[in-house]
UniProtKB/TrEMBL annotation:
It is an enzyme of class 3 (hydrolase). It comes from the Bacteria. HAMAP family: Formimidoylglutam. Catalyzes the conversion of N-formimidoyl-L-glutamate to L-glutamate and formamide. This is Formimidoylglutamase. Mn(2+) 2 binds at D151, H153, D243, D245. Binds 2 manganese ions per subunit. GO terms for molecular function: agmatinase activity; formimidoylglutamase activity; manganese ion binding. Keywords: Histidine metabolism, Hydrolase, Manganese, Metal-binding. Its EC number is 3.5.3.8. Its cofactor is Mn(2+).
Amino acid sequence: MAIYKKANPKIWSGRTSDQRLYMHEKIKCGPIESISPHSIALLGYECDEGVKRNQGRVGAVDGPNAIRAQLGKMPNHLDSKTEVYDCGTIQCIKGDMEVTQNKLSQMVSKSLTKNALPIILGGGHDIAYGHYNGLADHIGKRKTIGIINFDAHFDLRSVENGPNSGTPFYQIAQDCNANGTPFKYLCLGIRPDSNDKNLFETAIDLEVEFLRNTEFNIQKLKTVSRVIKKFISGVNHVYVTIDLDGFSSAYAPGVSAASPMGFSPDIVLRSLGTIIKSKKLLGMDIAEMNPTYDIDDQTAKLAASLIHFVIHRISE
Ligand SMILES: N=CN[C@@H](CCC(=O)O)C(=O)O
Ligand SMILES: [Mn+2]
Ligand SMILES: [Mn+2]
């Protein structure tokens, strides 16, 4: 079972002004049905069932509200034409992750019918299967969606033990194969200390494009930008998913699979800038926010800053 919870305006708080100086004063709460066209639709995915099934550390169920609490306090530089909505949250009930993913897909499709940009706050990385399906259902088979995943992991585990937070892109690849649609997947920040030999072999079999963590840093900006631009030129739309465990635990300790060896925010911001410039961004999510292991809200602040960057850059 999955339950839709209406947005809670009390989560959105911070300093107050009479000029909408802060994001909590800018963001409106309302269901997707009521949002203005061409707005930004935030949606929570309160689910860590996939992390639990994948033998990870649970706690990401509280991720969406941790991100909202930090984003609300940040300054608002958006013009009055750009509207941002909190469209509520989908809750996973009794471990029914599949129904939760389905509900997410429906809400993502609905936001696209409003020409809104869905930004989904997670939640385990199983968020990606629900999010992608919602984008694909709306777009149809004639157009290609390229997935850009900022992550230490491929998340291409097979589903022999059931779907979980480590399987979403394998599931998408299987569906693409069954539907006769291309599977276009670029992973940025892949680490040999985080993916076994079978996962690298699966990635090669599925013609996944990837940059290892050693190639994904600001010193290699030219190469990174070239790879991203080339990938984007081969697809009609781009779906961006950011797994916070791809960042070094110096920046993102609040995740299930933390590691000091991850990437830094600077290269992610530059990459997001390149993606936004392409005008092909269709949807974005932030996965694996786990407040249980966060330190001084660093990870929640990082997630909120990434969203803050994207919504401001998009509206420029
Ligand atoms: N979404 C995360 N997936 C990773 C988790 C790794 C870990 O728990 O150490 C994976 O399955 O590879
Ligand atoms: Mn990961
Ligand atoms: Mn992941």
